[in-house]
């Protein structure tokens, strides 16, 4: 089971729509943070398969958090179906055993 901490975050998609542009420094920092998250997933044999602005959350400390693992796949396995429970500010994803 994958558990996600409570997240009172806004998606990068929403931030871009509201502000129309980002500072280059901010974009570079968030890109690096997402690259680290993807590197971690790949080291665990997981492919995200759905990286997009609406699946990148920005928290109150302006840190990027990768979400949207419902399409993720474990490398070398058949497609895994994830089950999720969501509310406005929380998402928990459960992988079958």
UniProtKB/TrEMBL annotation:
GO CC, one annotated term: cytoplasm
Protein name: Protein kinase domain-containing protein
Positions of the Protein kinase domain: 1-97
PROSITE patterns reported for this sequence: PROTEIN_KINASE_DOM (PS50011)
MF terms in GO: ATP binding; protein serine/threonine kinase activity
UniProt lineage: Eukaryota, Metazoa, Ecdysozoa, Arthropoda, Hexapoda
Annotated InterPro entries: Kinase-like_dom_sf (IPR011009), Prot_kinase_dom (IPR000719), Ser_Thr_kinase (IPR053235)
